[in-house]
Amino acid sequence: MDPSTRTTPLIPATLGESKVTGRERIKTFTYDYSYWSVKKGDPHFASQERVYSDLGSDVLDSAFEGYNACIFAYGQTGSGKSFTMMGEPDGPGLIPRICEGLFTRIRTDSDDVSYRTEVSYLEIYCERVRDLLKTGREHTLRVREHPRDGPYVQDLSKHLVSDYYDVKALMDKGNIQRTTASTNMNDTSSRSHAIFTITFTQAKYIADMPSETVSKINLVDLAGSERANATGATGDRLKEGANINKSLVTLGNVISALADASSSSAPSPGGNRKKSLFIPYRDSVLTWLLKDSLGGNSKTIMVATISPADVNYGETLSTLRYANRAKNIINKPTINEDKNVKLIRELRAEIARLKKRLGTSDFDDLPIGNNMMDKLHENEERVSNFIAMNSAN
């Protein structure tokens, strides 16, 4: 994971000088990128274009290479998560820019590759999953887990798209249906977590063999953490806030557990690995759905958004610590390709290696030479059988 925030030494401006002279006076956090997007006139102002150039292009690179990718924004309510992910009409955020960049690359890419792109859009509201691209929003969808592909939402609609305008229309439709409300801290506070998913399939021929990779891109706009006394929430808003905070606490627990698991994965001096830690993915719907993105087969980026207001010092410090833990997570993504095609490629590489060794051998040691020849014939026969099976299918 790559938390994309860096902060200078953090000092609460409301504290007197005599109260900030102790060991807690300065707190320093270092991450991969730092952005300041409060006032456009500032010399160090970071535009949406710059954020996309630094982060969004990495997501697209991963997708075209055949990897899963994920980017999500975390922070307190009103700190700029939806602005970062969705943006504004005159300044699109990461999600629309990534979608537009995807189709721009498809148009300029090689003609011998065919592409298929599908999108889905859901929200998690009070621990219930809703399809934002269907009109019947009252219908709650169930989360299932496939033994090979992991968690998924049963009956979630997938929409085939051919260009960015198709995606934009679906995205606008989903945003209209997403649950928002006004609080003391944010006039249009997101009351749900939203996950916009792109399933990107590439099909081509490699050495006369059909090859297909399927990449899943999860673009996540989380609801913000909040404190009831600051937001003035009552009734339904208070209930929503409690569910939001519960899922975010679970997300924090998952990140901490994954960070601990990553740090303890190395063998001990005695050669034994430490006992595997339990990861509480199923404690919330959000972490269950993002299981692969958080600690599995995905290249994942975390954006931590913070408020410049001194009254939010506590929430800001909590967010920075949250992101600091995420830095320690080590994912091991793999290219999502057909296993038979991968095996054939590896066998052909082995055949080429054996032929090279046989070509340079003087066969002084006949048993070894014969064994190599037998292995060569065996691998060639396996490749022929696999090609015949794929052709039949």
Task: Summarize the structure in words.
With 393 residues, the protein is α+β, with helices and mostly antiparallel strands. It has helices at 48-65, 81-85, 94-108, 164-177, 228-231, 235-263, 285-289, 291-295, 313-326, 339-360, 366-392; strands at 2-3, 7-10, 27-29, 69-75, 87-88, 91-92, 114-125, 128-131, 143-146, 150-153, 159-161, 180-181, 189-190, 193-206, 209-221, 299-305. Helix 10 (339-360) runs antiparallel to helix 11. It is globular, with a radius of gyration of 25 Å.
Task: Pick out its properties.
eight-stranded mixed β-sheet, 393 residues, 11 helices, disordered N terminus
What fraction of the residues are assigned to beta strands by DSSP? Answer: 15-25%
Total of DSSP H or I helical runs spanning 4+ residues:
11
Task: Please estimate the helix content.
Answer: 40-55%
**Helix/strand/pairing category:** alpha+beta
Q: Low-confidence spans: pLDDT under 50, at least 5 residues?
A: 2-21, 181-188, 228-233, 362-369
Overall average pLDDT: 78
End-to-end C-alpha gap: 39 Å
Order of helices and strands: EEEHEHEEHEEEEEHEEEEHHHHEHHH
Q: Over all CA atoms, what is the radius of gyration?
A: 25 Å
- Net shape: globular
Number of strands: 16
Largest sheet: 8 strands, mixed
